[in-house]
Model the fold of this input.
Amino acid sequence: MTDTAPVAGTSVPLVEMRNIRLAFGGVHAVDDVSIELRAGEVLGLLGHNGAGKSTLIKILSGAYQMDSGEIRIDGNTARIESPRDARRYNIETIYQTLALADNLNASANLFLGRELITPLGFVDDAKMEAETRKIMARLNPNFKRLNEPVSALSGGQRQSVAIARAVYFNAKILIMDEPTAALGVHETQMVAELIDELKRQGLGIILISHDTREMMALCDRVCVMKNGQLVGTERVEDVTEDDILSMIILGKNPREAA
Ligand SMILES: Nc1ncnc2c1ncn2[C@@H]1O[C@H](COP(=O)(O)OP(=O)(O)OP(=O)(O)O)[C@@H](O)[C@H]1O
Ligand SMILES: [Mg+2]
Done:
């Protein structure tokens, strides 16, 4: 990866979701939505409660299966029918709940369900701790509390453990649903720095948040959804926060002539 931001239109997108539909009974949770994500890009999903944001990303992470549409990864049609399929495409998801085991330390959490094993078949705690030190040094050098249960960590530190887990297992596409919702200002800043670092490393990141201002700061482009439909996708440098707010509220793109 170079550290030059990819120029739109010059490379195959990392992810293309085309004409995605999923209904639950009569509810069109995702209604003909198309988005694309490029390497080294942070793409934001915005919209009111029930807009369809989580449903859309759950289709990409294999938690839900779409009724129709197409997903392409690196230009090729992808079959994602389970979370395991998604991992095969190096898609990792961090849900708001983080899915950390509170009573275990950072290293045990990082390798939870994917433990490193010695040649004799034992869980290799020393190796896992060394690997955890390495990745945390890269992602969050201030993080030193490797031997405490994660219940003793701050929200931001817990978030960095969850992110380290995704990155360690070679995430190329990272999905974060409300990563800063429960965090204070300082912690949110820490997660923002982590996201910047991952972006520099060339990951593509899909971010969901209700905080429009924060999204304008973190994202390269934002997609606004309403009632399952895509209202529009904008580069943050081309729009104001008010433009985005009116897209969220009115479901209309102010830049398109009425
Ligand atoms: N498993 C499900 N079964 C039935 N309906 C669902 C299911 N998941 C989502 N829905 C419905 O689909 C619609 C979209 O929900 P979704 O969770 O994707 O919204 P969201 O944009 O993530 O909202 P929020 O901001 O509240 O997280 C809602 O009407 C919701 O009730
Ligand atoms: Mg949601």
